[in-house]
Amino acid sequence: MQDLGRFLIVLGAAAVLIGVLLVLAPRIPWLGRLPGDVLIRRGTFTFYFPLVTCLVVSIILTLILNLFWRR
Questions:
Q1: Rounded average pLDDT over 26-48
Q2: N or C terminus of the chain: which is more exposed, having fewer CB within 10 Å?
Q3: Domain check: are 36 and 23 in the same one?
Q4: Whole-angstrom Cα distance, residue 11 to residue 32?
C-alpha cells in the first residue's frame, strides 16, 4: 500500500505542476514560438504543431525527473 500512496502523491504533485505551468505558459514569450515549430496557414485552415517546443519541454522534464529518480 505504501507504493500506491507514493504513486498517488507523485501523481498529484505532477498534476499541480502541470496546472501551474498551464497558468504561467502565456507569460513565457518564447514558449510555442521557437524556430522549428510548424505553422501552416492556407485560407481559413491553420495547422500548428510545436515540434521544437515539445522537444525542449521533453528534454527539460527528462533532466528534472532523472534528478528525482536517480538511485
A1: 89
A2: C
A3: no
A4: 25
